[in-house]
Write a structure and sequence with these properties.
Order of helices and strands: EEHEEHEEEEEHEEEHEEHHEHE
Helix content: 25-40%
Oligomer: single chain
Mean pLDDT: 92
Radius of gyration: 18 Å
Distance between the termini: 17 Å
Number of strands: 16
């Protein structure tokens, strides 16, 4: 069994796969067109996340659960893969607490935010995913998740994929993005770090910038939860999943 975090790609024949996807760029575009442009929060530790008020959450759901999820399922069905789209709300697939307070760094100041509708996945309905896989379906999973109070919350897709990988006790998690993997220099794709062992994790994380920092956080959570290997692969390749499984990218063990 394999968990893959992506926005689209080919599936290796005969392998049970759970796909997890996001849709951040399209959400930004639609939010701007609707007159509610995206806002981002930077935590004191340097991680960036989307500020999610109620309107943003509705736009988020329109893109992730509506357009992107449906399109991926359509493309997979065209290729003979019996895909089934799910949000984290369906069957209480992804659950966790809503963040009551968030600290945001703005210049030299810190601001406390209390109305953000985001959180972290702490529980996964692994039984539902196993049932679907046993029945021959390929689950295509997307945020939002369900809060402890029963409300929809924005959660990070990479970290949600890590939580699913841990819950299903898979050996491998593949996280695809539009770069070759972890680079020492973002301007030089030849600076790829091909492999990171546990003892070199902190040194490798020092090279991560932007969204790659969150991907490495997700990788760390997956590895600490028992996943043997996390591969940061290149979604731009013709066969991105197969390429990643062949070690093309950054392999974290």
């Amino acid at each position: 069994m394999l968990v893959v975090k992506l926005g689209g790609g080919a599936i290796k024949d005969g392998l049970a796969v759970v796909l997890v996807h996001g849709g951040s760029a399209e959400t930004n575009e639609l939010a701007t067109r609707l007159g509610h442009p995206p806002k981002f929060i930077t935590s004191p530790s340097g991680y960036e996340s989307r500020y999610t008020d109620r309107v943003t959450l509705e736009i988020f759901a329109m893109v992730y659960a509506g357009k992107v999820n449906t399109r991926i399922v359509e493309l997979l069905q065209q290729r003979g893969v019996n895909a089934l789209g799910l949000t984290g709300l369906d069957g209480r697939l992804l659950e966790g607490p809503r963040k009551k307070v968030i600290k945001s760094v703005e210049g030299a100041r810190q601001r406390i935010i209390r109305d953000d509708l985001s959180g972290k996945v702490e529980r996964v309905n692994a039984g539902l995913l196993r049932l679907l896989l046993e029945c021959g379906y390929t689950p295509v999973v997307t945020p939002p998740a369900l809060s402890d109070e029963g409300e929809a919350i924005n959660v990070d897709g990479d970290r949600a994929a890590a939580a699913i990988a841990v819950a299903l006790q898979v050996e491998r998690l593949v996280i695809l993005s539009n770069v070759r993997g972890l680079l020492r220099d973002l301007a030089d794709e030849g600076s790829l770090i091909p492999e990171v062992q546990r003892e070199g994790r902190e040194q490798a994380e020092a090279y991560a910038k932007g969204r790659m920092r969150v991907k490495l956080l997700a990788a760390r959570e997956a590895l600490d939860g028992g996943v043997r290997e996390v591969i940061l692969g290149d979604a731009r390749r013709p066969q991105p999943i197969s390429s990643a499984l062949q070690g093309r990218g950054t392999v974290l063990r």
